[in-house]
Specification:
Radius of gyration: 16 Å
Helix content: 40-55%
CATH topology: Rossmann fold
Shape: globular
Number of domains: 1
CATH class: Alpha Beta
Number of helices: 5
Order of helices and strands: EHEHEHEHHE
Strand content: 15-25%
Number of strands: 5
CATH architecture: 3-Layer(aba) Sandwich
Length: 151
């Protein structure tokens, strides 16, 4: 998944960008921002959608199936947005990764595996994240890549 390249002083910008997209307005803006940045810098863009694993959903009848269906709908919406963006302008080398798990953990792993130069995520709109910590805060605390948070 990673391509070897030597360290280069004075490089023009990021070569590999990882962006987290979950279908929310802020994440879609983050994806659009990352797309534009990748286009301008001729960077490789890895868009990552992480479906949460909710243990309680498996306890209710049809809960797990409903979660899979919602994740499939978001993934289809993301594919359509990517196709639309690809038709509208210059080519951007991109891929969409779909996984289940904890968003911050999966994004960190993908960024490490791809040797990302930066990670882009949308700002969290959930009030509880002020106490527990948002995906963006957790990625910043990891301290392995610059993290851009798009409002």
């Amino acid at each position: 998944m990673s391509e070897e390249r030597p360290f280069e002083f004075g490089s023009e910008g990021p070569r590999v960008i990882v962006a987290g997209v979950d279908g929310s307005d802020t994440s879609m803006r983050a994806g659009a921002y990352a797309w534009g940045l990748a286009r301008r810098n001729d960077s490789r863009l890895i868009l990552v959608h992480v479906s949460p694993v909710a243990a309680l959903s498996t306890l209710t009848p049809g809960g797990a199936a409903a979660m899979r269906e919602a994740a499939d709908e978001i993934a289809q919406e993301l594919r359509e947005e990517l196709e639309r963006a690809a038709r509208q302008g210059p080519a951007v080398r991109h891929e969409l990764i779909l996984e289940r798990g904890d968003a911050a953990t999966v994004l960190a792993r993908v960024a490490d595996e791809a040797r990302a130069d930066m990670v882009v995520v949308g700002a969290s709109a959930q009030a509880g994240h002020r106490l527990v910590g948002s995906v963006a805060v957790r990625l910043v605390r990891a301290g392995r890549w610059p993290v851009t948070v798009v409002p």
